[in-house]
Amino acid sequence: MTSGPIPMIIDTDPGVDDAFALVLALRSPECDVRAVTATFGNVGREQTFPNLRRILALADRADVPAAAGAVRPLVHPQAETAPDWHGVDGLGLRADAFPAPGPGDARTAVELMADVLTSAEAPVTIVCLGPMTDAALLLGSHPALIPRIGRIVAMGGSLGSGNTRGAGEFNIYADPEAAHRVLTQADVPVTLVPLDLTMRCAVEGTWLDELTAAGPRCATLAGTAALYRSTFLGRYGRDALVLHDTLAVLEAAVPGTLRTTAFRLGVACTMGPERGLIVPDRRPEAPGAPVEVALDADVDAVLTEILRRLTTLDRVAHAAQPGHR
């Protein structure tokens, strides 16, 4: 643990909820965001990388290095994207409402991650908000840097029903082989934030109205939610928005916010309908390191705290994090 802000790398695939989550990290004083990286996922990396830089510009944090990550899964082609939820532009068909994207870093995502780990004076938390491909590549290509990772917090998976064409959750289904590497062989503490909890943390119109009223930048962020809300209403019959990734960021910023249960996990990497399924092994003698799976929280308090932090977006034009480099 560090006495100051937590050094942090965020790997993401913006994505509407990713945009909310990244702003949350940038507006959380506990987070010293050293790098952000963009992977394929909700849409292709040709969209997620400029989206990542648009979000940094919205938060007036173009000083944070942003690098392009994986364009495809480790083994098999990506089977599903999510333009019906996030729009073909990844930001709910509202990308043009964001500031122009700032410059990207010339390094690859893995190179940038490795450089941050090498130079960090304290253990670094890696937050994975999309497919875990970049994290898996980092672990595989730089094993000597693994002791410099304090914790991996990932949004993904489900111990119940998934949200893709089969049994899996989208982020895991997008690259199960990468998830298998991170969740079963990372050799660092891992916290997984699955659908079992995130689907209970939906926000509705009044929450979004309060965010919109907080200022023009907040209104731009809130405006990305319209398409997602419409799709959610059509699938679940409820006018709401589930900001999955924000829960992972809040837990990374304030460890212990979510209540976890330790499981040793398996990931189905077959090509059948079970692909991407997370399977807990509850045997006492099960091999491998346990993963802390977030299954409970004070939902009202969590959503109130996320809103409180997001509404600070318009209050300070720029506030570089202490120790940022």
UniProtKB/TrEMBL annotation:
One protein family per Pfam: IU_nuc_hydro
Keyword set includes Hydrolase: yes
Domain Inosine/uridine-preferring nucleoside hydrolase intervals: 8-303
Entry protein name: Nucleoside hydrolase
UniProt xrefs under InterPro entries: Inosine/uridine_hydrolase_dom (IPR001910), IUNH (IPR023186), Ribo_hydro-like (IPR036452)
Residues in the signal sequence: none
SUPFAM superfamilies per the UniProt record, alphabetical: Nucleoside hydrolase
Keyword Hydrolase included in the entry's annotation: yes
MF terms in GO: hydrolase activity
Sorted UniProt keywords: Glycosidase, Hydrolase
